[in-house]
Design a protein that fits this description.
Layout (H helix, E strand, L loop, with lengths): L1 H12 L12 E3 L4 E2 L4 E5 L6 E5 L2 E7 L2 E4 L7 E4 L4 E4 L8 E7 L3 E7 L1 E2 L3 E7 L3 E3 L5 E9 L4 E6 L2 E2 L6 E4 L4 E4 L10 E6 L4 E3 L6 E14 L5 E2 L4 E10 L3 E6 L2 E2 L6 E4 L8 E9 L4 E9 L1 E2 L4 E7 L9 E8 L4 E6 L2 E2 L6 E4 L4 E4 L8 E8 L4 E3 L3 E3 L9 E3 L3 E3 L5 E5 L7 E6 L2 E4 L3 E3 L9 E8 L6 E11 L4 E7 L9 E8 L4 E6 L2 E2 L6 E3 L5 E4 L8 E9 L2 E4 L3 E3 L9 E3 L3 E3 L5 E5 L7 E6 L2 E4 L3 E3 L9 E8 L6 E11 L3 E5 L11 E8 L4 E6 L2 E2 L6 E4 L4 E4 L8 E8 L4 E3 L3 E3 L9 E3 L3 E3 L5 E5 L7 E6 L2 E4 L3 E3 L9 E9 ...
InterPro entries: Ig-like_dom, Ig-like_dom_sf, Ig-like_fold, Ig_sub, Ig_sub2, IgSF_CEA-related
Pfam families: Ig_3 (PF13927)
Keywords: Disulfide bond, Glycoprotein, Immunoglobulin domain, Signal
C-alpha cells in the first residue's frame, strides 16, 4: 500500500489553481432530491488519476488501477472506475453542497447538489381577522411542520400577491403584512410553500374588513329643477358600508322620524320646499357621511291675455295695451312678431312690464303682439293681439299710360296708403268721371287728351289727398317702304334712297344689316331722315337696308332693300406657268373683280384664241413662246381691263448622279457629281430621301454640283439623289446606291474551349466586311480550312493548341485575325444508372450513377427538372451522396423519369432515361358483381386491386382450402350449390403482400326469405374465414 499512501499524500497537498472548473463534465442522476434517496454523479470523461471531493473534502481518491474511499463515506459511497461515476446512498440534508471531480493536471468540474426535506403541514393564521379600513394592519403568518429550502408564494384568490407600497413580506416571505388595509384586502389568502421536490398550499384565511360609509349618493325621482304643487317625489340615498350604516333624514336642519333609505313626498305644496339631507353612520368604523339636495315647489301660471286701454290706435297719437294674468307670475315679456320686444324711443313698459305704451303709435308698429307670463315652473302665452294703426290717406299714386292711340281704352289705377281703405273719385276737366279707384276710359279720340285727377278720402281720420296724370292721344303709323330716286347704283356715282310712310310719324331711322345706320363721309340723311344719299356709292356699301318709321306708341319697318353696286372690271389676274416644256398643254386662268361678272377674251400675237376666262393651249412648240393677253369687259359700266403674261417654251431637262471609277473604300477620299442637261438655278442633295447637310467630312462644291466625302465612313452607305430646281419646276435624279467597302473587322470565333478525345470540335468565324470576307483557318502554322466554318477531325491530346482564323477583303486589301485556344481532355465514355434492389413502396432504395471516364461533378434530373434535395416535398425523402441517390424510403410519389448528368470542362453528359416505377400494394381489394341472381342465370364476379405490378388472383368458396379459380374474373351458374362467401385472394408477385376480400352471394327463390348480403357477411365471416385461413 505504499503507492496508494504516497498518492493520497500528493493529491491532498497538490494545488488545483492551474485548472479551470468546468461544470459541464459532471451531472447528477437527479437534482434536487429528497432526504433518504440515492444519487449517482456521472462524468462525461473517464478519470484515471484524480479525486471526487465534497466541499473541498476528499470522498474518493482515484489512481490507475485502484481507488481509496474516505472512512466517513465508505458505507454510503460506490465508485465505478469504468465510468468514474460516484453513487451516494441514504442522502441527508447535510449532504447538500459542492461536489468536485478533479482530474490531475487535466480538468476540474463542479456540481452543486441540493438534498431537501419534503414539505408537509402548511398552516396559515392571521394576527386578527376583524379589521377597520385605513386604521388596522393585517399580519398573515405561514408555518411549515416539515421541509427545507423553502420558497413562499402568497395568493389572494387566484392572483399572486407582490410587494408594493402597502404590502410587505418578512421572515423570508413567511409573513405577509398589509399596512392600512382596504375593503379590497378581504382575500381569501393562501400561502404556497415549495422547494425543489415538493409543494403544499395552506387552507384559505378570510379577513373581515369594516369600511365606510363612503361614496354617498342621493337620487331623486323624477329629477327636476322645480316641481309643481300636487307632484309626488321619491328621494333615495345609498352609501357603501360594512356593516350596513344607520340612516336618518333632515329637512332644513330638522330631523324627520324616518330611518329608511327612501323618503316619499306625496301631493306636495309650496311648503314642502327646502334642503333635504340624508345622514349615514357606521357603528363599527364610527364614521359619518351625508348627501343633500334642494327641492323647490311652485304653483303654475294659469291665464294670460292682452287688452286695450283708452282710445283707438290712430297714427301719431298715444296708445296703451295691458297684460292681464292669473297665478304666481315672476316675469312678463312682450313678443312682437314672435321675437322679444324691447323698449325704444316710442314704446315703453311700466308696472313690471304689465303695461305697454306707444307714444306715439305709428303705422310701423303694426303687427302681432303677445305677452308671456312665467315662473321657473312654467309659462303661459296670451292669444295673438294684432295691432293695425289707423292712418291716411297718404299721397295717391296713379298707374297708367301717358300716351295712347285713338280708338284704345285706357285703364288708370289710383292707390293711396290708408287704414281703413280710402274712398276714391276721378275727375277730367273738373267733371267726375268715376267713383272707384280704377277708371277705364271710353274709346279715345284726339280731344280726350288732357289732365285726369284722383282724390282719396279716409272716413275715420277725416282726411283727403289728390294726384293727377296727363294723357296724350296719338294716331298710329301704318306703312314704311324704300324706293330708288334717280339712276342705278354705279360705283363712284351719286345714288339716292327714300323712305315713304303713312300715319303720324315722329322719327325715321335707317338700318344696315340689323344695326342702326349713322351718317359718315359718303352717306347723308335729309333733315327728317326721309332720304338717304350715297355720294359717291361704293362697292363697300353693298348690303341689306331697311327704314323704321315710328311714334311713341307704334312703328312700321320696311321690307329689306338689297343694294348691289355695279363696278369693274378691275385689273385682271392671270394664273399659270411662265415656262413649259415642248409637248405640254398649259392652262391659263383669268379673273377680274366685277359686278355683273365680266366677259373674257384671250389674245396671242393680237389674235383671239379663247372667249372664256380659262384658256388651255394646244401641245406646245418652241414658236408658241410669247405674250398671252386677257381682256375683261362689263356690259353695264361699259368698261374693260386687260392683263398679259409671258410664256417660254423649252426642251426637257435630264438629271443623274455620276460617280468616279475607283471603288468607295472606308477612310479614302470620294465624290459624287450631279449632271444636269438644261437650265437650272439650284441643286440640292438627298440621302435616303432626306436632305443631305454639310459637316466636317461632307462638303459641297461648284454650286452644290459636287459632294465630297473626306474621309469616307461606313455610315455614308445609302441612296443618293440630286434635285435640280428652277422657277418652273424641280427634277430629282434616280437613286444612286453608294456602298462603302470596309473591313474586315476583328473576327469573332464561336467554338468550344474544351473538347474530348475521340470527338470533333466545330468553330465558326465571322468578321464584319463589305464585300464579305474570305476566311482561312490555321493550326500550328498550317492551313486547315478555307471556309468560315471549320470542323476538326477526331481529336487527340496533341490537337490541343491555338486555332487561328484570318479574314481578308479583296477590295480593301485588308486582313484581320483572331485566335481560339482549344484544350483536348480525356472523354467521358458513358454514363449509366444502375440499381441493385427492386423499388418497393416504403422501403429504402438506391440509384447509382456509373461514369466511365474522369468527370468534375454529378447532378440528378427528374422529369427533365433539376433535383434539389433541399426543396423536396413533404411526401418525398431522398438524399444525394457522391454518385448515389438514396430514397429513405421510396414511395409512389417518387415515380418518374430520372437521369444522372456527369460534367467535365467540355460539357454535360446525361445518362439514358431511367423510368422509376415503384412497386406497391395491394393497397385495397374490391369485388364487383351481383349479391344475388335468379336460379340458372350466369354470374360473373370481378376482383380488382390497387397494386403495382398487377396482382395474381385466386378464388375460394366458403371454407374450401384450395382455390376454385385463378384470374381476376370468376363465372358460374346461379345454383344452390354455388351459394356462399366468395373470397378473392390478391397477391403482388414483387412485394409478396397478400390481401383478401369476401363477397356473399345468394340465389333468389320466390318464397324464400332473403337475408341482405351485409348481414350474411356478418354471420358467415366468423365461420368461413377462420376455417379458410387456418
Amino acid at each position: 500500500m505504499e503507492c496508494p499512501v504516497l498518492f493520497y499524500f500528493l493529491l491532498a497537498t497538490i494545488s488545483f489553481e492551474t485548472t479551470t472548473a468546468i461544470s459541464q463534465n459532471i451531472y447528477a442522476s437527479e437534482n434536487p432530491l429528497p432526504v433518504g434517496s440515492n444519487v449517482t454523479l456521472f462524468s462525461r470523461i473517464n478519470v484515471t488519476t484524480g479525486a471526487w471531493m465534497f466541499n473541498s473534502n476528499i470522498i474518493v481518491m482515484i489512481f490507475p488501477g485502484d481507488r481509496i474511499i474516505d472512512d466517513t463515506w465508505r458505507e454510503r459511497v460506490i465508485f465505478n472506475s469504468t465510468t468514474s461515476s460516484l453513487t451516494i446512498r441514504s442522502l441527508q440534508v447535510e449532504d447538500s453542497g459542492l461536489y468536485t471531480l478533479q482530474a490531475l493536471n487535466f480538468f476540474r468540474s463542479e456540481l452543486t447538489l441540493s438534498v431537501q426535506v419534503p414539505i408537509s403541514n402548511v398552516t396559515l393564521r392571521a394576527n386578527a381577522t376583524n379589521l377597520v379600513e385605513f386604521n388596522d394592519t393585517a399580519v398573515l403568518m405561514c408555518t411549515v411542520a416539515n421541509g427545507s429550502s423553502l420558497s413562499y408564494v402568497w395568493l389572494k384568490g387566484n392572483t399572486v400577491v407582490t410587494a408594493s407600497g402597502g404590502v410587505q413580506f418578512s421572515d423570508g416571505g413567511a409573513t405577509l403584512i398589509i399596512v392600512r388595509v382596504t375593503r379590497y384586502d378581504e382575500g381569501p389568502f393562501r400561502c404556497n410553500v415549495s422547494n425543489g421536490i415538493s409543494q403544499e398550499i395552506s387552507l384559505p384565511v378570510h379577513l373581515n374588513i369594516s369600511y365606510g360609509p363612503s361614496n354617498t349618493t342621493m337620487m331623486i325621482m323624477p329629477m327636476k329643477y322645480i316641481y309643481k304643487t300636487g307632484s309626488n317625489i321619491l328621494l333615495s340615498c345609498s352609501a357603501e358600508s360594512s356593516p350596513a350604516a344607520i340612516i336618518r333624514w333632515m329637512v332644513n336642519g330638522v330631523y324627520l322620524n324616518d330611518f329608511s333609505p327612501q323618503l316619499q313626498l306625496e301631493m306636495v305644496t309650496e311648503s314642502h320646499s327646502g334642503n333635504y339631507q340624508c345622514l349615514f353612520y357606521n357603528t363599527a368604523t364610527s364614521r359619518f357621511t351625508s348627501a343633500s339636495a334642494m327641492i323647490r315647489i311652485l304653483a303654475p301660471v294659469t291665464m294670460v291675455s292682452i287688452k286695450m286701454i283708452g282710445p283707438l290706435p290712430i297714427q301719431n297719437h298715444t296708445f296703451t295695451l295691458i297684460c292681464e294674468t292669473a297665478g304666481s307670475v315672476e316675469s312678463i315679456i312682450w313678443m312682437y312678431n314672435w321675437s322679444q320686444l324691447y323698449p325704444d324711443n316710442t314704446r315703453n313698459f311700466t308696472m313690471n312690464n304689465t303695461i305697454l305704451t306707444f307714444d306715439p303709435v305709428m303705422a310701423s308698429d303694426n303687427g302681432n303682439y303677445q305677452c308671456v307670463a312665467s315662473n321657473p315652473l312654467n309659462s303661459s302665452t296670451s292669444e295673438i293681439f294684432t295691432l293695425e294703426v289707423i292712418y291716411g290717406p297718404e299721397k295717391p299714386t296713379i298707374m297708367g299710360p301717358n300716351m295712347a292711340l285713338t280708338g284704345d281704352n285706357v285703364t288708370l289705377n289710383c292707390y293711396a296708403s290708408s287704414n281703413p281703405i280710402s274712398i276714391y273719385k276721378w275727375f277730367f276737366n273738373d267733371s267726375i268721371v268715376a267713383n272707384t279707384s280704377e277708371y277705364v276710359t271710353p274709346p279715345l279720340t284726339r280731344d280726350m287728351s288732357g289732365m285726369y285727377t284722383c282724390m282719396a278720402y279716409n272716413n275715420i281720420t277725416g282726411k283727403n289727398s289728390t294726384a293727377y296724370t296727363m294723357l296724350t292721344v296719338l294716331a298710329p303709323v301704318t306703312m314704311a317702304s324704300i324706293e330708288i330716286v334717280g339712276p342705278l347704283p354705279i360705283q363712284n356715282h351719286t345714288f339716292t334712297l327714300i323712305c315713304e310712310t303713312t300715319g303720324s310719324v315722329e322719327s325715321i331711322i335707317w338700318m344696315y344689316y340689323w344695326s342702326p345706320l349713322y351718317p359718315d363721309n359718303t352717306r347723308n340723311f335729309s333733315m327728317d331722315n326721309t332720304i338717304l344719299t350715297f355720294d359717291p356709292v361704293m362697292a363697300s356699301d353693298n348690303g341689306n337696308y331697311r327704314c323704321v318709321a315710328s311714334n311713341p306708341l307704334s312703328s312700321s319697318t320696311s321690307e329689306i332693300f338689297t343694294l348691289q353696286v355695279f363696278y369693274g372690271p378691275e385689273k385682271p389676274t392671270i394664273m399659270g406657268p411662265n415656262m413649259a416644256m415642248t409637248g405640254d398643254n398649259v392652262t391659263l386662268s383669268c379673273y377680274a373683280s366685277s359686278n355683273p361678272v365680266s366677259i373674257y377674251k384671250w389674245f396671242f400675237n393680237d389674235s383671239i384664241v379663247a372667249n372664256t376666262s380659262e384658256y388651255v393651249t394646244l401641245p406646245l412648240t418652241r414658236d408658241l413662246s410669247g405674250m398671252y393677253t386677257c381682256m375683261a369687259y362689263n356690259n353695264i359700266t361699259g368698261k374693260n381691263s386687260t392683263a398679259y403674261t409671258m410664256l417660254t417654251v423649252i426642251d426637257p431637262i435630264m438629271v443623274h448622279v455620276e460617280a468616279p471609277m475607283n471603288p468607295p473604300i472606308e477612310g479614302h477620299f470620294y465624290n459624287l457629281t450631279c449632271n444636269v442637261t438644261g437650265p437650272t438655278e439650284h441643286i440640292y442633295w438627298l440621302k435616303n430621301y432626306e436632305p443631305l447637310h454639310e459637316n466636317d467630312r461632307t462638303v459641297f462644291y461648284m454650286n452644290n454640283k459636287t459632294v465630297t466625302f473626306n474621309p469616307l465612313e461606313q455610315t455614308d452607305t445609302g441612296n443618293y439623289q440630286c434635285m435640280s430646281i428652277n422657277t418652273v419646276w424641280s427634277i430629282t435624279s434616280p437613286p444612286f446606291k453608294l456602298l462603302v467597302n470596309f473591313g474586315p473587322e476583328t473576327p469573332i470565333i464561336d467554338g468550344p474551349a474544351f473538347a474530348e478525345t475521340g470527338h470533333t470540335a466545330k468553330f465558326s468565324c465571322s468578321a464584319k466586311s463589305v464585300p464579305p470576307s474570305q476566311y482561312h483557318w490555321f493550326f500550328n502554322d498550317s492551313t486547315v480550312a478555307n471556309t468560315s466554318v471549320f470542323t476538326t477531325g477526331l481529336l487527340s491530346f496533341n490537337m490541343s493548341g491555338e486555332y487561328t482564323c484570318m479574314a481578308s477583303n479583296y477590295v480593301t486589301e485588308n486582313v484581320s485575325i483572331s485566335v481560339k485556344m482549344l484544350t483536348v481532355i480525356e472523354a467521358i465514355e458513358s454514363v449509366m444508372i444502375r440499381n441493385n434492389t427492386v423499388p418497393i413502396n416504403s422501403e429504402n432504395f438506391t440509384l447509382t450513377c456509373e461514369v466511365n471516364g474522369p468527370y468534375d461533378k454529378i447532378y440528378w434530373m427528374k422529369d427533365n427538372m433539376y433535383l434539389n434535395t433541399s426543396t423536396a416535398k413533404a411526401n418525398m425523402s431522398y438524399e444525394i451522396e457522391n454518385n448515389t441517390l438514396h430514397f429513405t424510403p421510396v414511395t409512389m410519389y417518387n415515380d418518374g423519369i430520372y437521369q444522372c448528368v456527369a460534367t467535365n470542362q467540355a460539357g454535360p453528359h446525361a445518362s439514358p432515361q431511367y423510368v422509376l416505377l415503384v412497386n406497391y400494394g395491394p393497397l385495397s381489394v374490391h369485388i364487383l358483381g351481383p349479391d344475388s341472381a335468379k336460379v340458372g342465370s350466369s354470374v360473373s364476379l370481378t376482383c380488382s386491386a390497387a397494386s403495382q405490378p398487377d396482382c395474381d388472383f385466386d378464388w375460394f368458396l366458403n371454407s374450401q382450402p384450395s382455390a376454385i379459380k385463378t384470374g381476376s374474373v370468376i363465372t358460374f351458374p346461379a345454383t344452390k350449390e354455388n351459394e356462399g362467401n366468395y373470397t378473392c385472394k390478391a397477391k403482388n408477385p414483387v412485394t409478396n403482400i397478400t390481401m383478401y376480400e369476401i363477397k356473399a352471394f345468394t340465389v333468389d327463390h320466390a318464397s324464400t326469405f332473403h337475408i341482405p348480403s351485409n348481414m350474411m357477411l356478418m354471420v358467415l365471416v366468423a365461420l368461413s374465414v377462420t376455417a379458410l385461413f387456418n
